[in-house]
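User: structure tokens for this one?
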Amino acid sequence: MTFSTPAAGVVLPLEDVADSVFASKSMGEGFAVKPSEGSIYAPVSGKVTMLAETKHGIGITTNNGLEVLIHLGIDTVELKGNPFKLFIKKDDEVVTGQKIAFMDIKQVKDSGKDPTVIVVITNSKDKVKNVKYTLTNKSAADFDEIMSVQL
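Assistant:
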């Protein structure tokens, strides 16, 4: 199963993000993108199972049971949803590459927050046997494949 970039920008290994919880992979395997624009796309196909009230977190469960969290920015929960616009609702079915949100990167940065988009498989310890990263520390365009996992 493959994951595509949720935003155009520079792809980072999870270990390089400025949030120790995500960087330690205690939330699960994944990757991050320093976005160059605000459009956010579904990195996988599945059902929207969680939307944070503050719009900074989106959960998608894939057909094979992977629980994927798309986390928009670091410490952006404190912004109470202001820089985000969601184009989906809970229980929607989404496909890889579908525009699901918009993040006002300037507003995030002006608030002193980091706009890095983080994608993690929160149940990777139980479900994933092997992870292969195809792009890290490189620029990615919309829909570039970033990671593949073997279940």
